[in-house]
Design a protein that fits this description.
mainly beta; 58% strand; six-stranded antiparallel β-sheet; 64 residues
C-alpha cells in the first residue's frame, strides 16, 4: 500500500477536496450530500442515524 494525500476545506455546506488524483467537491449537510470526485464520478450519499448510510453512483468516470 502506497502513501496518499487528501485535504478537505469546508465553506458552509460546500466542501472542496484536494488529493493526489485531483480536485473534487461536494455540497450538502450531514444527512444528504452530492459529490463529484476528482476522477469525475458523481455520487449521492444519505446518512441515517446509528452510523448507517446509503450511497448511489449517479454517473461513471468520464476519464477513460
Amino acid at each position: 500500500m502506497g502513501w496518499g494525500y487528501r485535504k478537505s476545506m469546508k465553506f458552509g455546506p460546500f466542501r472542496l477536496n484536494l488529493s493526489r488524483s485531483g480536485v473534487g467537491h461536494s455540497v450538502g449537510g450531514r444527512g444528504f450530500r452530492v459529490t463529484k470526485t476528482a476522477d469525475g464520478r458523481r455520487t449521492l450519499t444519505v446518512n441515517l442515524p446509528g452510523g448507517f448510510h446509503w450511497r448511489k453512483t449517479l454517473s461513471s468516470s468520464s476519464k477513460r
